[in-house]
Amino acid sequence: MDERELIMDHWKRKITGIQWEPQIDYKLIFCEALKSLADQKYSLLDIGTGTGRVIFENGLDKLYRKVVGVDIRPEMIEICREKSRGMKNAEFHVMDSTKQTGFQAGSFDVVSAMFPPFDAKEMYRLLNRGGYFILLSSLKGDHKEVVSRFPDMDQVAAGKYSFGTVKSLNTALRNAGFKIVLSNIMRYLWLFRDEEVLKQFYEKITFTKVFDGREQRLAGLTRNIDGRIPVTRFLCTTIARKA
Ligand SMILES: C[S@@+](CC[C@H](N)C(=O)[O-])C[C@H]1O[C@@H](n2cnc3c(N)ncnc32)[C@H](O)[C@@H]1O
Question: Which of 2, 71, 76, 108 is least surrounded by CB atoms within 10 angstroms?
Fold first, then answer.
C-alpha cells in the first residue's frame, strides 16, 4: 500500500455511514413551532404521521389537549397505536390526507405535516379560525442527484406528488385561504459513505425498493474526493394561519 492508499484507507475508516453538512437539525424550526404554539386547550392533527415521530419525540400529547395522527399506511398506524397504548388523549387513523378526510370542519387548532402530501383546502377546512398549519416540505431540487437518475424517486419520496417551489407551495396555501406567517428555506448536503448505505437509507425513508434491479445507475453518482456521495437536501418550513 503506497502513502496515498494508506492515507485514504485511514480516512475512510473514519467515515461513518451518513453525515451531513452543515450539521443542522432540519426539523428544529418545525418542532419548535409545534411546541411554542401549543396550548392545553388545543387539538392537534399530524398528517402522514408515519411512526408518530412528530408527536412522540416532541411529547406533544402532553402539550396539547388532544393529538390525532393519520397515515395512509395501515402498518404505520398500527405502530402508533402500539406506542400510544395507555395514552388517553391520542388517537390514530388510516386516512388519505390528499382527499376529504372524515373529520368535521374546524376539528383542529393546529395541523402538522412533516413531508406528506396534502390537500390545502382540506387542511383549511379542518382548522379552527386562527388555527395554524405547520409543514416541513421538500422543494424542487431536493434529492436532485438521486432523482436525476431515478425520475420516479421524487414521486415516491413525495408520496406521488412532485416537489414544488416555495412560490407554488405558498400559492396553493393562499388559494386555500391561508395567510403565510413564516417560510424558512434550508439547503444542506447528505454525505453517504457508499452506494449501499445510500440505497439502504432511501429504501428506509421511502418504504420502497425503489432501486430494485437498477442499482447500476448508482455507480454514476458524483463523488467527493474522499469517496463520499453528496446528495442535496432542499427543504422549507412553512407556518400558515387560517385568517
Ligand atoms: C417521509 S414519511 C414522514 C413520516 C413522518 N411525518 C416523519 O417525519 O417521521 C411520509 C409519510 O406520509 C405518508 N403518506 C404518504 N402519502 C400519504 C397520503 N396520501 N395520506 C396520508 N399519508 C400519506 C407515508 O405513509 C409516510 O408515513
Answer: 2
Q: Is the Cβ atom of 98 under 6 angstroms away from ligand 1? A: yes
Kindly state if the Cβ of 131 falls inside 6 Å of ligand 1: no
71 pocket-lining for ligand 1 (C-beta < 6 Å): yes
How many Cα atoms are found within 13 Å in the side-chain-facing hemisphere of 230? Answer: 12
Could you tell me if the CB of 114 is within 6 A of ligand 1? Answer: yes
Return the pLDDT at 24. Answer: 81
Looking at residue 71, what is its pLDDT? 95
Q: Give all domains of the chain, ordered by start, each with its CATH number.
A: 3-242 (3.40.50.150)
Alpha-carbon gap, residue 168 to 13, rounded angstroms = 43
Q: Write down the pLDDT at residue 161.
A: 53
Task: Report pTM.
Answer: 0.89
Overall average pLDDT of the 70-77 stretch: 95
C-alpha cell at 152: 420516479
Cα of 48 vs centre of ligand 1, distance in Å, is: 3
Per-residue model confidence as pLDDT tens digits over 188-236: 999 999 998 999 898 888 777 778 888 888 888 999 988 899 999 999 9
